[in-house]
Design brief:
By secondary structure, this protein is an alpha+beta fold. Helices cover 18% and strands 32% of the residues. It folds into two domains: 44 residues; 189 residues, Jelly Rolls, CATH 2.60.120. Helix 1 packs antiparallel against helix 3. The protein is globular. Bound molecules: calcium ion (3 copies).
Length: 236
């Protein structure tokens, strides 16, 4: 096809508008807690290179205990029991009974899309679960997810239930956009009974996000390239 000047300009403008809306969806946190022969591991194996997910951790009221071989995040059997056998999120918040992790942008920002995870408890472990983020806050009423009276796993240390939250579909979806950092907390409380076997556990904690491309830099680069293209084509 023989290009004329008008075609050249059109091509440049199409490329520029493509850059303005460009963004990539990626996994910004991925905790599988793979067992390394000694302990479960708590690092993220996410694929996004423009954000950093800190190691999975616990609040002061929880401690990890490591199953002999199973790759899960699990509490000590004595953790989180002080709230008793009643629903008591206030106790969980007061005593920092949660799992936590933070995703931070290395530069720029990100938009949260979704979180998903597997969870479970053994005989007398906590049977209420609450998901919070630093975007909404960490006080009662800020929770994105509240699951009451979930059933115990049929096999100890095997999470058989799944949960998640769709940030992009939330009423306040814009609150989860343009973030430089976000902390997630998953609280457990309300023990199922007063006997032993009190552990709770998580696995496969995954966070998806959209990372906007740096539009101004892209615009300069592509606009410059477009001008070069036109100059080369038409020797202007
Ligand atoms: Ca990363
Ligand atoms: Ca695992
Ligand atoms: Ca408690």
């Amino acid at each position: 096809m023989k290009l004329n000047k008008r075609h050249g300009m059109t091509a440049a403008l199409v490329v520029v508008s493509g850059v303005l809306v460009s963004a990539k969806a990626d996994i910004v946190a991925n905790y599988t807690f793979d067992h390394n022969g000694t302990t479960a591991t708590y690092n993220s194996t996410d694929t996004d290179t423009s954000t950093t997910a800190a190691d999975f951790a616990t609040g002061a009221g929880f401690n990890f205990t490591n199953p002999t071989t199973t790759g899960i995040a699990r509490t000590s059997q004595t953790d989180g029991l002080d709230g008793g056998t009643v629903e008591n999120l206030a106790d969980a918040i007061l005593n920092n009974e949660y799992f936590t992790f933070t995703v931070t942008a290395d530069s720029g920002t990100f938009d949260l899309t979704s979180i998903s995870f597997d969870y479970g408890r053994w005989l007398n472990g906590a049977k209420d679960l609450y998901l919070f983020t630093s975007v909404d806050g960490f006080t009662d009423g800020d929770q994105l997810l509240k699951i009451n009276d979930f059933a115990q796993s049929t096999v100890n240390d095997v999470p058989e239930l799944s949960a998640g939250f769709d940030f992009a579909a939330a009423a306040n979806a814009e609150d989860y956009e343009g973030l430089t950092s976000v902390e997630f907390r998953i609280y457990f409380d309300h023990r199922a009974g007063s006997g032993g076997g009190n552990n709770v556990f998580l696995d496969n904690v995954v966070v998806n996000a959209v990372i906007p491309e740096p539009a101004t830099l892209g615009l300069v680069a592509v606009f410059g390239g477009g001008v070069l293209f036109i100059r080369r084509r038409f020797m202007i």
